[in-house]
Amino acid sequence: MGDIWEGLASGFWLVVTLDPDLVAITLMSLRVTVTATLIASCIALPFGAWLAIRRFRHRRLVIAVLNALMGLPPVVVGLIVYLLFSRSGPFGVLGLLFTPTAMIIAQVIIIAPLIASIAHQAMRDLWADYHDLLISMSASKWQRVKTLIWDGRRALLTAALAGFGRAIGEVGAIMIVGGNIDNATRVLTTAIALETGKGDFARALGLGFVLIGLAVTVNIVIHTVGRTEREGKW
Amino acid sequence: MVTPVLPLTMSGAVVKRRSKIVLGPVDLTIGGQGLTIVLGPNGAGKTTLLRALHGLERLAQGDTVWQVPLDQARARQGFVFQSPIMLRRSVLDNLTYPLRLNGMAKPEAAQMARGWAARVGLDRALEQPAPQLSGGEQQKLALARALITAPEIVFLDEPCASLDGRATREIETILLAAHASGTRIVMATHDIGQAKRLATEVVFMMRGAIVENGPAAAFFASPKTPQAAALLRGDIVE
Ligand SMILES: Nc1ncnc2c1ncn2[C@@H]1O[C@H](COP(=O)(O)OP(=O)(O)O)[C@@H](O)[C@H]1O
Ligand SMILES: [Mg+2]
In what residue span(s) does the ABC transmembrane type-1 domain sit (chain A) (predicted)? Predict the structure, then answer.
């Protein structure tokens, strides 16, 4: 018990004194995950919206595949990205393995289906709601898309935030493709795994506090966005 | 001089759902003036007829002909749905929306919107999110939003079906004013009292077909079909 209390106290101390190592690792985490979220959103939000609005052959199949991709175990994504970017793999010449770029790629693959799926559901509901009105007002295809994106902006933001939340807490894939290299690819989750293994609970808990803080913040924002949606603000 | 969109002629129109005929074949002409009430029990095909006239239903057979090409005709019609479709925006933005679609500048659109909001009694709710309005307020907003582009014809699908007497009277007042200023109105209802208050023409429907169609006075004074007579007597017709 004493160990835990001591760990909690010194972990907390590391956070409030802005321990340089902890700050560096946090910034790396944010850099990787924010970039991955932005890239994944650029791909997944329009794709999800497009899926919701367009009727085409095999649409159901595409949606089923999307939902299946959402369930991909991150570790397996890590393994696949590892194989693709390892020296003997097809993209080996790029030399990206064990760089933040490789971690970003892995995270994009993990969260893009999630973001697309949430965006798809939201846009599908909105489109079902608006369809007759927009047709009746003879809105052009572009005007319809603009209207849906604008009126669905909170839902789209929620989708992106959900992706961020999933990516920031992910450990398996980025451990494999990033390698958890000090000052290079070490992020919050992989650092926690390492420090726990070494028995440095103070560090592990300090990092854990930051991670929890980020996760909680994201969820509060998602919740707030949901409330403004219901109240119709912005 | 712009060519009017009316009269509208529907001939041999059939609407199917899952290969079952739910409307028609219907032949109907909507002339340049008047207030047509589409009367009939639930499931008679009123909604389907209105949607078909407006071009929201694909016709399995037959066609609808306006006096101008279809893409122009659509922009000069309005439609009010039975359960109002509110954009998830403020009352003001709901009103400016169709104007902005047509390319009107923002200040001008906002000014028109304020005027219409005042006419339907929503001037104090301008910044309120439209989905939060009461049912009656939503329907008044939907009506103002349909009328704001000064359409030549407005279709209304049982706009008062779920409203109380006061909201119904407010809607009817706005409608009569629009009618007086020359807007052609085609409105579905299953409320005979409302039909009597408003109609200049009646289209009486049952089971997907038009049973009777003509001037309102004649319809109410001496219905030609036993079904219409039964309806006017107050019997349950289905
Ligand atoms: N989405 C639908 N799928 C199948 N049948 C429908 C659908 N909508 C309406 N119908 C049928 O079409 C007929 C006409 O319906 P409708 O036009 O809504 O009548 P009304 O508006 O007069 O109540 C009814 O028999 C109804 O059961
Ligand atoms: Mg109906």
Answer: 26-222
